[in-house]
Design a protein that fits this description.
The chain is an alpha/beta fold and 260 residues long. The chain has 8 helices and 7 strands, in the order βαβαβαβαβαβαααβ. The structure holds nicotinamide-adenine-dinucleotide. Nicotinamide-adenine-dinucleotide binds next to helix 1, helix 4 and helix 6.
C-alpha cells in the first residue's frame, strides 16, 4: 500500500513509535527511525525491521530538543532515502507533579520534545512534500490534547498546543495534497505509561494498583488499554488514498474517554 513511500517516525525506538514503524515497513514504506536508547539495541531493532519490509530501514539519532538535529534528520532522510513523504511526530515524554512543585526544566523539556520538535520537523519537511506534491503528517497527540488531568500541566499544555499546530498547518498545505492530522490516544501500556504509574501513586497518595484501576482506566469506558496495533491501523488509513480528505482533524482513539 505504501510501496516506496519514505517515512520519518520520531521516537520510534520504543512503544507506539516502534509499532507504527513496524506497520509502515510491512506496508512497503522505507523508514527512518529515530529515538533514544542503547546503540546495540537500536541496531538490532533496525535490522529486524528491515528484514520485515521491502526496502531500507535507517536510523538517525536526532535529539528532539535540538532544532538543528531535527532539521538534519529531515535533510539526511531526503539524501539517503530520496524523499520525505510521511512524517510522524511521535517522540514524547511525561512528567507528573502538582503545579507548585513542577520543575521548570521538566516543563521546558516536555514543551520541547512533545510540541516544539513537531514545529521544527514539519517546517523542514513541508517544502519537500510540496515539491513532490504529496505528503502525510501525523502528530501523535493524546486524549490530553482534548481534556486535562491534574498534575500533568506541561504534557496537557504541549498536547493541546500540537492540535493548534496540526490545524494551522493543515490549512496551509491542503492544496498540495498534504494532510496533517493528530491521533489522540487514550492510555496505551508502553514504557511512558509504566513510568508514570509510581509517580501518579505518589502524587495522589494511592497504590499503583489503584492508579491503574481508578486513574488510568477509570477514564476509559471500555476499561481496556488502547493497543499499539489499533493506533497503527489508523495511521495506515491516514496514509492511504481513502484517508486523503481527513485533514486538520483530532482523532480520538480512547475507548470513549473524551465522550464524557
Ligand atoms: P515511549 O516512552 O515508549 O516512547 C517514546 C519515544 O520517544 C522513545 O522512542 C524515546 O526514545 C523517544 N524520545 C524521548 N525523548 C526523546 C528525545 N529527546 N529525542 C528523540 N527521541 C526521544 O512512549 P509512548 O507511550 O510510545 O509515547 C509515544 C507518543 O505517544 C508520545 O508522544 C506520547 O505522548 C503519546 N501518547 C502515549 C500514550 C500512552 O498511553 N502511552 C497516550 C497518548 C499519547
Amino acid at each position: 500500500m505504501l510501496k516506496g513511500k519514505v517515512a520519518i517516525i520520531t521516537g520510534s525506538t520504543s512503544g507506539i513509535g516502534l509499532g507504527l514503524a513496524t506497520a509502515l515497513v510491512r506496508a512497503g514504506a522505507h523508514v527512518m527511525l529515530n529515538g533514544l536508547g542503547d546503540a546495540d539495541e537500536i541496531e538490532a531493532t533496525r535490522s529486524t525491521l528491515e528484514a520485515q519490509g521491502a526496502g531500507p530501514v535507517l536510523y538517525h539519532g536526532a535529539n528532539m530538543l535540538k532544532p538543528a538535529e531535527i532539521a538534519d534528520l529531515v535533510t539526511t532522510t531526503r539524501e539517503k532515502l530520496g524523499a520525505v513523504d510521511i512524517l510522524v511526530n511521535n517522540a514524547g515524554i511525561q512528567f507528573v507533579s502538582p503545579i507548585e512543585d513542577f520543575p521548570p526544566e521538566k516543563w521546558d523539556a516536555i514543551i520541547g520534545i512533545n510540541l516544539s520538535s513537531a514545529f521544527h520537523s514539519i517546517r523542514a519537511a513541508v517544502p519537500l512534500m510540496k515539491q513532490s506534491g504529496w505528503g502525510r503528517i501525523i502528530n501523535m497527540a493524546s486524549a490530553h490534547a482534548l481534556v486535562a488531568s491534574p498534575f500533568k500541566a506541561a504534557y496537557v499544555a504541549a498536547k493541546h498546543g500540537i492540535l493548534g499546530l496540526t490545524k494551522t498547518v493543515a490549512l496551509e498545505v491542503a492544496a498540495h495534497n498534504i494532510t496533517v492530522n493528530a491521533i489522540c490516544p487514550g492510555y496505551v501500556r508502553t514504557p511512558l505509561v509504566e513510568k508514570q504509574i509510581p509517580d501518579t501513586a505518589k502524587a495522589r497518595g494511592i497504590s499503583e494498583e489503584d492508579v491503574i484501576r481508578d486513574v488510568l482506566l477509570a477514564a476509559q469506558p471500555t476499561k481496556k488499554f488502547v493497543t499499539i496495533e489499533q493506533l497503527a491501523g489508523l495511521a495506515l488509513f491516514l496514509c492511504s488514498d481513502e484517508g486523503a480528505s481527513i485533514n486538520g482533524a483530532a482523532l480520538p482513539v480512547d475507548g470513549g474517554w473524551t465522550a464524557h
